[in-house]
Design a protein that fits this description.
Blueprint lengths: L10 E5 L4 H12 L3 E6 L4 H9 L4 E5 L5 H15 L4 E4 L14 H28 L4 E6 L12 H21 L4 E8 L8 H5 L1 H10 L12 H8 L10 E4 L7
Parallel strand pairs: 1-2, 1-4, 2-3, 4-5, 5-6, 6-7
Helix pairs in contact: 1-2, 1-8, 3-4, 4-5
Bound molecules: NADP nicotinamide-adenine-dinucleotide phosphate.
Length: 252
């Protein structure tokens, strides 16, 4: 019998996997046996090499996911080159920082389009792909601590990530009966480009570290277990959850 966490024979599409958490999750999925389609706007050179080193196939599709049309067509392109997509990891995301009283419409729209609107339209295309071929599917959305908390100086990011948690529940409600599991992971504070400004700010860095029971910023590979779980048969009866992977941050 196949191990419930075994992903051999599966293809996972991961967005924004040239770096950071997306890279960590793509490599973890490959190590569990999946072939990987990388969808993003920058060359995922390192990630392609790591997936191939894990013995899996890796495909590279360039798409700017701020464009809804690109999100809608990325899935069809992935199916064309890989034959099928069984797992969708909606990881690509951006953040803009400013005081709420000065927050611009551009900073609002850009973040909402990448983090929420186009996450939805790529998921919609994936759900139609699964339903059309009567095959099960796994959606893993990347949420945030700011799906649970308010944050500060990141109005559109908080709105988008709170939206991701809600949309994950909606997708579960509408698609679970088709054999599609929609769930989310809420990473805590991980050391990536996204948090470079916080890591560089001595006071914020100390305050954040002081609140993490595990005592360190997360490393991208520390998301591996959660994404493999939610992408595999091990989570077949798990629907609509947002799983914190946060070194204990929310326990405080
Ligand atoms: P990151 O290192 O900045 O990576 C973000 C990824 O998204 C990059 O691959 C980036 O591509 C891609 N991306 C951004 N805009 C895109 C666009 N318009 N089209 C296509 N791809 C685009 O950040 P990260 O920390 O790994 O973040 C990954 C996800 O985790 C995001 O959704 C973020 O909100 C979430 N998250 C991060 C943390 C954390 O502590 N780091 C915590 C909670 C949630 P480029 O390299 O080309 O920009």
């Amino acid at each position: 019998m196949k191990h419930p966490f075994d992903l051999s024979g599966k293809t996972a599409l991961v967005t924004g996997a040239n770096t950071g958490l997306g890279q960590g999750m793509a490599v973890a999925l490959a190590k569990a046996g999946a072939d990987i389609v990388l969808v993003g706007r920058s060359a995922p050179t390192e990630t392609l090499a790591a997936i191939k080193a894990a013995g899996q196939k890796a495909y590279d599709i360039r798409a700017d996911l701020i464009e809804t049309a690109a999100a809608k067509t990325a899935l069809a392109e992935a199916v064309e080159i890989a034959g099928q997509v069984d797992v969708l990891v909606n990881n690509a995301g951006i953040i803009r920082r400013n005081d709420a009283v000065d927050f611009s419409e551009d900073d609002w729209d850009a973040v909402m389009d990448v983090n929420l609107k186009n996450l939805f339209f790529l998921s919609q295309a994936f759900a139609n792909h699964c339903i059309g071929r009567k095959a099960p599917g796994k959606i893993v959305n990347i949420a945030s601590m700011l799906s649970f908390q308010g944050g500060i100086r990141v109005a559109s990011y908080t709105a988008s990530k709170s939206g991701v948690m809600g949309l994950t529940r909606l997708m579960a409600n509408e698609w679970a009966h088709h054999g599609i599991n929609a769930n989310a992971i809420a990473p805590g504070y991980f050391a990536t480009n996204n948090t470079a400004a916080l890591q560089a700010d001595e006071d914020r860095n100390a305050a954040i570290l002081g609140r993490i029971p595990a005592g360190h910023w997360g490393k991208p590979e520390e998301l591996g277990g959660a994404v493999v779980f939610l992408a595999s048969a091990a989570s077949n009866y798990v629907h609509g959850i947002t799983l914190p992977v946060d070194g204990g941050w929310l326990a405080r």
